[in-house]
Design goal:
The complex is a heterodimer of chains A (290) and B (426). Chain A is built from eleven helices and one strand, in the order E-H-H-H-H-H-H-H-H-H-H-H. Chain A has 290 residues and is mainly α. In chain B, strands 10, 12, 14, 15, 16, 18 and 19 form a seven-stranded mixed sheet that branches. Chain B has a six-stranded mixed sheet with strand order 5-6-7-3-8-9, sandwiched between helices. In chain B, strands 2-1-4 form a three-stranded antiparallel sheet. The chains are: A mainly alpha (290), B alpha/beta (426).
Chain lengths: 290, 426
């Protein structure tokens, strides 16, 4: 029986130098893969910590996640009923149309803010401990999906209550949710390095998100904006959100063909965002206050 | 043991920026350079408001060695440690590490006060790089080490500070790595817990782990390190044995201390210089405990001063003033002549242990009000041996006490008196 005598050949060797990590792209990609894989368990732990720490001291607990889409929906249903504004006829009752739109919009909006929130919450950890940085992003994505799941539950309850028929294309909805999540994370990752240096990004983002919502067919059907706002048309969220909502509630979606090439671009943007995040953190951590 | 060194640090430098605004702007520039795949050749180019926090530092560390990093605040110790841990990158030079490296720089990272001790062990462990399996197998050991078995399902916010620190330390102490970086965390908890931590680190060291320790506590350094590197303003100024390394570090602190050279406005005389000699009359600044030190004080004067006085203070940077003696004490009286006068004094059987010391001299006239001159750090000297022992088996710290031990002779009379006293006490 022979025991392994020399562990040397598979020993971990780490080298740090002044040159950019991009100079050794193969090694960079390999460590990114390894870290993303190694980050699973830590990401899960962080997710559990964040969720339980957030809700353990609240009587309503996890139900707090329902509040933003529910309130917005109620406000707009009230405004519409009272005749303050009117939108084109929607395929389902307006309340359900808005609630569905809000549920999907929140996936994008939360995902957009997740990387920055995670990084600024974990500043001390980032400056003091070496851990796979991907864990923060995965945990952030997990939080987004968790909130989405709770809101989806509410949506299903409402849909059943009002006896609204669901389309059979419902099975594609997860794909739409993935696309919205990926787009949000990608943009969030692109903004994160700058937000570490300049707080302006963190201050400005909530305003940007609420303006962005009005340039997206959340509260009105996409057709209503035809020939209308330029922003609605160039907005990549429009295609993703409208398509996903149509998959769920039925009804024609003129943007459908766009969905797939936008999805492809989103995945590419996400990979680039990840790379940027990897390159940026070691350079920017020294500028962070621990 | 042969094979590559566990750690190789080659000509490493790191820039820092004093101004926040500029620092952020440089951060953006560096980020763009990183994305543009810069080759690292502009690393040593200093932009306005930048300085080198680490300046061309090189050293090697063999497997199983335990290195202490010494230096005043801002000398670059923590920067070096962060660099070894991969948190910041060098601006020039190269670091190569063999083996899995883990750092104990901050205790209790990721602790959430509303969660229980059990949950926090899992989180902190995951952040420190434990795998799920490792945590599960070490869990009981960690709880036992922290002595918190009864409180493990209580939220951490109801723990005392001491309990929180014990929990954090217990998790950190069970990290699995061939290479450990430790920053100022050994001295936590009460003395019993501290000794337990020490024992644990000694066990790790004896198990052949490579360790780098940063501490301001010289006793800690003495206890765990085989070798010391002293940093001063980013430069490596000493690399070698522990005792003389500590002395070099203390000497640095002495030199940093306030250099006063005060004289009264109309002083007729001043101390020109002080030189130290060993027993054979050779100039010397390194001594052993118990040796004799001789000093020659050169005084320059414009006129004759009858019955002048010299006062000598002996200081060490960590404790300050250790003691003082004045020339009249031993009945020595001397006159200062116009021109130069040289006075000798000696300290016999130096009662000082390994470390760095300085002399502060005062020159007075015959009366209390006749202050002429004060020179701090008039002379610096080091005690370089014999070695001290910080484990409680020898002598350590500053003063060497002439001491002896014996077993008390059992005497029936005394014992009965004690017993009686005891009963009376009841």
């Amino acid at each position: 029986m022979s025991l392994p005598t020399s562990p040397r050949h598979d020993e971990i060797v780490t080298v740090y130098s002044a040159a950019s990590q991009l100079r050794q792209p193969l090694q960079l990609v390999r460590t990114m893969m390894q870290d993303a894989f190694a980050a699973r368990w830590l990401a899960w732990r962080l997710l559990v910590r964040n969720l339980s720490a957030r809700y353990r001291q609240a009587l309503l607990g996890h139900a707090w996640g329902l509040l933003p889409p529910l309130l917005t929906t109620l406000v707009f249903v009230f405004l519409q009923d009272a005749g303050y504004f009117s939108v084109e006829k929607t395929p389902v009752p307006y309340g359900i149309f808005v609630l569905t739109g809000m549920t999907f919009w929140q996936v994008f909006a939360d995902a957009l803010q997740a990387p920055m929130r995670q990084v600024s919450q974990c500043q001390t950890m980032l400056t003091k401990v070496q851990f796979p940085r991907e864990a923060l992003i995965i945990a952030g994505a997990g939080e987004v999906l968790y909130s989405f799941a709770i809101r989806l539950l509410l949506l299903f309850v409402v849909v059943l209550w009002f006896d609204v028929p669901l389309a059979s294309s419902l099975v594609y909805v997860p794909l739409g949710v993935c696309a919205l999540l990926a787009l949000g994370l990608a943009l969030g990752l692109w903004l994160t390095p700058i937000s570490i240096l300049y707080q302006d990004v963190n201050h400005g983002l909530p305003f940007l998100v609420s303006l962005w919502m009005f340039a997206t067919p959340v509260l009105y059907p996409a057709q209503a904006s035809r020939g209308g706002s330029f922003f609605v048309r160039i907005n990549p969220v429009t295609a993703l959100l409208d398509t996903t909502r149509s998959w769920m509630l039925g009804g024609a979606s003129p943007w459908s063909p766009n969905f797939f090439w936008i999805f492809g671009l989103v995945i590419l943007a996400l990979l680039c965002g990840w790379l940027l995040y990897r390159l940026a953190l070691p350079v920017l951590i020294e500028r962070m206050s621990g | 043991m042969t094979g590559p060194a566990a750690l190789q640090v080659e000509h490493v430098s790191k820039k820092f920026c004093r101004s926040l605004k500029r620092s952020l702007w440089y951060g953006l520039q560096d980020l763009l350079a990183e994305v543009a795949a810069q080759d690292g050749s502009r690393g040593l180019h200093l932009r306005p408001a930048e300085f080198l926090a680490l300046d061309d530092v090189s050293f090697q560390l063999q497997r199983g060695e335990c290195l202490g990093l010494l230096g005043a605040n801002g000398a670059g110790k923590s920067t070096l440690l962060k660099m070894l841990n991969g948190l910041v990158r060098p601006d020039a030079g190269r670091v190569e590490i063999h083996g899995r490296i883990r750092a104990l720089i901050e205790l209790g990272t990721g602790f959430s006060p509303v969660l229980t001790g059990r949950e926090n062990i899992y989180i902190n462990g995951a952040i420190l790089g434990f795998s799920k399996k490792e945590i599960e197998s070490k869990f009981d050991e960690i709880v036992e080490f922290a002595e918190l078995a009864d409180f493990i399902d209580t939220p951490v916010q109801s723990y005392s500070t001491g309990m929180q620190v014990r929990l954090a330390m217990a998790v950190a102490a069970h990290m699995q790595a061939e290479f450990l970086l430790v920053d100022e965390v050994l001295a936590v908890g009460d003395i019993a817990f501290r000794m337990k931590c020490f024992q644990h680190f000694l066990d790790l060291k004896n198990a052949g782990k490579t360790i780098v320790v940063v501490s301001h506590n010289m006793v800690d350094i003495h206890r765990v390190c085989d070798r010391v590197i002293v940093l001063d303003r980013g430069k490596k100024i000493y690399d070698g044995a522990v005792a003389s390394g500590i002395a070099a570090y203390e000497e640095l602190l002495s030199k940093r201390g306030s250099l006063t050279d005060q004289r009264s406005a109309d002083a007729p005389a001043s101390i020109e210089r002080v030189e130290l000699f060993d027993e054979d009359g050779k100039p010397c600044s390194d001594f052993n405990t118990g040796e004799n030190l001789t000093a020659a004080v050169t005084i320059r004067s414009q006129r004759k001063i009858a019955n002048a006085r010299l006062i000598v203070h002996v200081l060490t940077p960590s404790l300050g003033l250790l003691g003082a003696f004045a020339s009249p004490h031993k009945g020595f009286r001397f006159d200062v002549e116009p021109g130069t006068t040289v006075v000798h004094f000696s300290i016999r059987k130096l009662p000082l242990l390994v470390g760095s010391y300085s002399l502060r001299l005062y020159l007075y006239g015959p009366d209390i009000k006749d202050f002429y001159h004060e020179v701090s750090q008039a002379a610096l000297f080091k005690i370089v041996g014999p070695p001290v022992d910080a484990f409680g088996y020898g002598v350590c710290h500053t003063i060497h006490f002439d001491h002896k031990w014996e077993i008390a002779e059992p005497s029936p009379g005394r014992e009965s008196a004690l017993t009686q006293g005891h009963y009376n006490g009841l």
